[in-house]
Each structure stands twice: as C-alpha cells, then as structure tokens.
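Customer escalation, tier 2.

The customer says the design service returned an amino acid string that "doesn't look like it belongs to this structure." They asked us to rerun it and document both sides in this ticket. The original structure tokens are below, unchanged.
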C-alpha cells in the first residue's frame, strides 16, 4: 500500500456535516473508486499549482464569480440532470471523495462548500466538471477526451 493510499480519507471529519445532512444517500468512495473517477475527470486536466486545474485545453462552458451555495445550486441545475450522480473531490486526498445525486448536492450546496475552500464536482453522465475556489468562484467545463 502506497503512502497516498494510507493517507486517503484520514480526515473524514472534514465532511461530517455533509454526511450528516444527506445520510445514506451519499457514499464515501474508497481510494480505488476515487482514483477511478479521477481518471475519468480530474486527471484529464493539467494542473496549475497544487490545487487548480488548467482549463486551456478544455471547453469552458461558464465562469462565475459567485462563490456561494446558491450559485453552485444554479450551476448543478443548469449543467446536469437532477438524477445523475456527482462525485465531489476535495483539495486533499486526506478528505475522502463522496458520490451522491446531483439534486441532493444542489439541495445541500452550502454544506458542500463549507467542507473545503476548494472542491471539484464531476457530473458523471454529463461529463462536466465544476471547479470551486473559495473567494474566486466557479469554472464549469467539459472534461477533455
């Protein structure tokens, strides 16, 4: 087991509020599941620094300077289907990723954003990724092939 695998998910307390809010409707991903979803989404982007995606090679659909739950809710409703699954990745592998329905993520958008100053929400059917950087807003784009 690698150091990355050993460190994955050790700070589950960071997402305690969202897990309490949605109950069994959210699934905490294993390291292997996280890496599988990351391969289909986050890993298709280059990085700028340690916690930002390089959007130059991707189709950016929308940028928003809003950085609150209401704006995330609007983006989820506008770019995905309410029944599709979303994977929420956090700024550190120490915080485990979760998967839940987009409608539920929209309903609890404020709680999601309170978990971390940055996160990425992958809409699995739409193949759209929403990047959140606290204080800067959201970038929405299609995941490169």
């Amino acid at each position: 087991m690698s150091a990355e695998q050993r460190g994955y998910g050790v700070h589950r307390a960071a997402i305690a509020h969202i897990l309490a809010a949605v109950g069994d409707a959210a699934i905490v991903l294993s390291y292997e599941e996280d890496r599988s979803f990351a391969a289909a989404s986050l890993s298709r982007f280059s990085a700028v620094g340690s916690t930002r995606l390089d959007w130059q090679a991707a189709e950016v659909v929308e940028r928003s300077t809003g950085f609150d739950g209401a704006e995330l809710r609007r983006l989820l409703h506008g770019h995905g289907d309410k029944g599709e699954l979303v994977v929420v990745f956090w700024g550190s592998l120490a915080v485990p990723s979760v998967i839940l329905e987009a409608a539920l993520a929209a309903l609890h958008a404020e709680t999601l954003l309170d978990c971390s100053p940055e996160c990425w929400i992958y809409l699995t059917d739409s193949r759209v990724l929403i990047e959140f950087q606290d204080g800067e807003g959201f970038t929405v784009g299609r995941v490169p092939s």
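Tier 2 assessment: The sequence is consistent with the input. The two ends are 30 Å apart (CA to CA). DSSP finds six helices and nine strands in the chain. Sent an explanation to the customer and offered a walkthrough call.
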